[in-house]
Amino acid sequence: MSSIVQQPVSIFNEFDYITEREQEVKAHTGSVAFDGLSEPILLAQDMSGGCGGKIWKCANVMIDYFIWKNVQSNGTLFKNQKIVEIGSGTGLVGLAVAKICPEIKQMVITDQLPMMDLMQENIKLNHLEHSVTADILNWGEEIPNLSQVLGADVILASDCIYLEVAFLPLLETFFALTNKESSVIYLTYKKRRNADKLFFQAAKKKFIFKDVTEDPKMNNYKRDKLHLFSVMRKPLNQQQLQDLQKAKSNTTTTQA
Ligand SMILES: C[S@@+](CC[C@H](N)C(=O)[O-])C[C@H]1O[C@@H](n2cnc3c(N)ncnc32)[C@H](O)[C@@H]1O
């Protein structure tokens, strides 16, 4: 990895800054093969809309794990489940999961507006229009009640912890998306800066993090400071439950 500090490539997003940027890629369309995936993923990469326009190592970690996990689950991983990916960039992770697990209920890949065309192009390139849709999801922004991203069983976030100013908005989005008690977030993370611990300190107040230690490739990627976690919301305490019930009954009274 290059240790050269570079300026943001994106004119759209001031958050879009990774100090230890890996080599940038020229816009092109190619194919990405994974051991255990019957056909390669066709992928357009283009960094003109932001850093998400290329493949990050975190994405490979997540995809390799799900290929392995699907074999362990006799091909039933995520069967009938709704999956939402955030900060999808090219959409590689979501597209790969849709190929690994053809019986998912729905896959929504999301990012900011400048990544929309790239995500849509990559859905089409892989003929996944029947199971994958692209949507805009800006972290920290309120999610409309009828949004297709709500009610997800699984949330995927690959390499989304990289800028301090986005830590709290990202956590708000995690909270909003895990509105089902059973929702689980899979998160891959590359440790780049000490400030990242601020994200984990804040996150651990509301979420429980587990290292995915069953992944047979874990020792390989840990050497590169890459981590894979499964994350769930902490159960609400008595006071929080009461507050929630109060808020619900206030809404009902106001509507009546
Ligand atoms: C390092 S890239 C990772 C891309 C992809 N998930 C991967 O692993 O290859 C981080 C992604 O987060 C997105 N992102 C950054 N800030 C965001 C925000 N405030 N709201 C939504 N997406 C954001 C970027 O556009 C980018 O696609």
Question: What does this 3D model show about the protein?
Answer:
- Its EC number is 2.1.1.-.
- The structure is a single chain.
- The radius of gyration is 18 Å and the shape is globular.
- The chain contains 7 helices and 9 strands; from the N terminus they run ββαβαβαββαβαβαβα.
- β6, α4 and β7 form a beta-alpha-beta unit.
- It is of the alpha/beta class and 256 residues long.
- It has a 7-stranded mixed sheet with strand order 5-4-3-6-7-9-8, with helices on both faces. The chain has a two-stranded antiparallel ribbon with strand order 1-2.
- α1 runs parallel beside α2.
- Helices cover 30% and strands 20% of the residues.
- S-adenosylmethionine (SAM) binds at residues 15, 50-52, 55-56, 58-59, 87-89, 92-93, 111-112, 115, 137-139, 158-160, 162, 166, 169.
Short précis:
This protein is of the alpha/beta class and 256 residues long. Helices cover 30% and strands 20% of the residues.
Layout of helices and strands:
Blueprint: E1 28-32, E2 41-45, H1 57-72, E3 82-86, H2 92-100, E4 106-111, H3 116-125, E5 132-136, E6 154-158, H4 167-177, E7 184-190, H5 196-203, E8 207-211, H6 218-222, E9 226-233, H7 238-255
The structure holds S-adenosylmethionine.
**CA radius of gyration:** 18 Å
Average of per-residue pLDDT values = 89
CA distance, first residue to last residue? 59 Å
Shape: globular
Give the cofactors and ligands: S-adenosylmethionine
What level of helicity do the residues show? 25-40%
